[in-house]
């Protein structure tokens, strides 16, 4: 209170400082909304379809090289956006951090220990390995913020989800030259939360959406919806769906800057041939032969 009183007194004596603060705040907000955030998402941040559904509310968190739409009510990121390009021919694998960090920017303050003995892994939405390879150590460390994490069953996280993360970097990025990715959880109407942390809701499935920009053409899209309950060795193409279906399941509108007539055409289908998915659909993870880790940890992807 004393600090606020002193600040108020200073502003009364120097009203020009108030104007300066307003200009600085306005400049920062303009940079954030008009420049910084749009550079980390393709064709606009996902929009809420119905504002009367609070469980779709989210606030945007900007990290190095990826963007997060975080839900305080669910204790999960509802969407994460990042960009992939072909990785350098020679790169070193960066050491995996030993733990995840609480993000001071979220109100629920979900922590590393909240998942302990829960039966669920801390599942990356923006992947550790790809972000580290393309953007370096500081960006990698931010993928270990708990605002980038959702509860995933071990067989999903360490096997099928890992396979998809490998495919997007090792194959899709090379095929297309540049790929934008949207990733996040899907929830049904029955709310189930971690016994170890009631503020964290358990998703029923997860989605990935890939968009490859094309010169003078509509982008190529590919979407997946993958349930929690998988063995991990299922073919990836089994889970291919449309962007329209993901929008229906999440209550979000993806690529809101697409013209409506174009969106209606390309968001209704996924062309697996354009992405050459079939040859890698059953390709195992590079870590599939390793002993599985205890719940709460994961391979470096």
UniProtKB/TrEMBL annotation:
Residues 63-261 form the ENPP1-3/EXOG-like endonuclease/phosphodiesterase domain. Residues 62-261 form the DNA/RNA non-specific endonuclease/pyrophosphatase/phosphodiesterase domain. Mg(2+) binds at residue 157. It comes from the Bacteria. The active site is at 124 (proton acceptor). GO terms for molecular function: endonuclease activity; hydrolase activity; metal ion binding; nucleic acid binding. Residues 291-301 have a biased composition (Basic and acidic residues). InterPro entries: Endo_G_ENPP1-like_dom, ENPP1-3/EXOG-like_nuc-like, Non-specific_endonuclease. Keywords: Endonuclease, Hydrolase, Metal-binding, Nuclease. The keyword Nuclease applies. Residues 281-301 are annotated as: Disordered. This is Endonuclease. It comes from Methylogaea oryzae.
């Amino acid at each position: 209170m004393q600090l606020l009183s002193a600040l108020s007194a200073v502003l009364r004596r120097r009203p020009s400082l108030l104007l300066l603060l307003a200009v600085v705040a306005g400049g920062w907000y303009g940079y954030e909304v008009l420049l910084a955030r749009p550079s980390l998402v393709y064709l606009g941040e996902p929009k809420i379809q119905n504002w009367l559904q609070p469980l779709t509310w989210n606030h945007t968190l900007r990290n190095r090289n990826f963007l997060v739409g975080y839900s305080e009510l669910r204790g999960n990121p509802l969407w994460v956006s990042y960009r992939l390009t072909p990785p350098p021919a020679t790169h070193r694998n960066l050491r995996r951090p030993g733990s995840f960090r609480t993000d001071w920017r979220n109100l629920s303050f979900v922590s590393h220990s909240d998942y302990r003995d829960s039966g669920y892994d801390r599942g990356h939405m923006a992947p550790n390995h790809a972000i580290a390879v393309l953007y370096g150590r500081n960006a990698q460390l931010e993928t270990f913020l708990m605002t980038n994490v959702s509860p995933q069953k071990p067989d999903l996280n360490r096997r099928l989800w890992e396979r998809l993360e490998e495919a997007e970097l090792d194959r899709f990025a090379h095929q297309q030259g540049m790929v934008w990715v949207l990733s996040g959880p899907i929830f049904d109407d029955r709310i189930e939360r971690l016994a170890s942390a009631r503020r964290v809701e358990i998703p029923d499935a997860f989605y990935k959406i890939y968009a490859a920009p094309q010169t003078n053409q509509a982008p190529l899209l590919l979407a997946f919806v993958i349930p929690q309950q998988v063995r991990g060795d299922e073919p990836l193409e089994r889970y291919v769906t449309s962007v329209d279906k993901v929008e229906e399941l999440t209550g979000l509108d993806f690529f809101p800057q697409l013209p409506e007539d174009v969106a209606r055409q390309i968001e209704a289908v996924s062309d697996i041939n354009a992405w050459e998915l079939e040859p890698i659909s059953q390709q195992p993870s590079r870590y599939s032969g390793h002993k599985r880790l205890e719940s709460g940890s994961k391979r470096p992807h």
